[in-house]
């Protein structure tokens, strides 16, 4: 074990092969050490209670669909009894509703089980430092994170999807997609957006298609209005201009 690893990890999953896979995937990270494994929520709590000081984890990976005590209940118990531990909930597939429930239960992050090992390692480092990673938005100021999460967990119980929330931090869009939407809001054509962001116009088109698919909308105007209402993008006047790149691919606008 590293003398002072940044992350001491407990893996909680009922499938031995998956636990072994996570351990193997993270073995190349010298600052992450797997200090224990558990196959159920009950076993995880027992492990935490009995862990010697040098093996106390500061991060826990929790399978959402555990037998017996499920992942959400385990997350609640861990947050209640070990408030300093960062909890990453993993699920078989990504779901707004599951992410919503996991974060309300006290998780610091939520990811699907097909997450890339490098991304999982980065998330673990962040939650071990007390940060929250919500749809790729990192809340690294403890006061801000505490306030946001407090407001989030106090939302009405009948709100069951991140998409239903008028809450600007919870966006399904990537940083690049947000940039594209901002440029669209400012009246930019595909070519102008491509030049400003140093990408090809085909890439811009791909981003727009992804945005519309994620938001279940039909055109870019609807997407801009949707994002403006939720505070995901700034008003067009606030968009900064950037010099065009000379090596942008010469695709045609739509």
UniProtKB/TrEMBL annotation:
Protein biosynthesis listed as a keyword: no
Positions of the HTH luxR-type domain: 166-231
SMART domains per the UniProt record, alphabetical: HTH_LUXR, REC
Chain ranges of the Response regulatory domain: 8-128
Keyword line: DNA-binding, Phosphoprotein, Transcription, Transcription regulation
Residue numbers of 4-aspartylphosphate PTMs: 63
GO BP term, pick one: phosphorelay signal transduction system
Gene Ontology MF, one: DNA binding
UniProt feature coiled coil, ranges: none
Xref: InterPro entries: CheY-like_superfamily, NreC/VraR/RcsB-like_REC, Sig_transdc_resp-reg_C-effctor, Sig_transdc_resp-reg_receiver, Tscrpt_reg_LuxR_C, WalR-like
PANTHER family (alphabetical): TRANSCRIPTIONAL REGULATORY PROTEIN NARL-RELATED, TWO-COMPONENT RESPONSE REGULATOR
Name this protein carries in UniProt: Two component transcriptional regulator, LuxR family
Native source species: Roseiflexus castenholzii (strain DSM 13941 / HLO8)
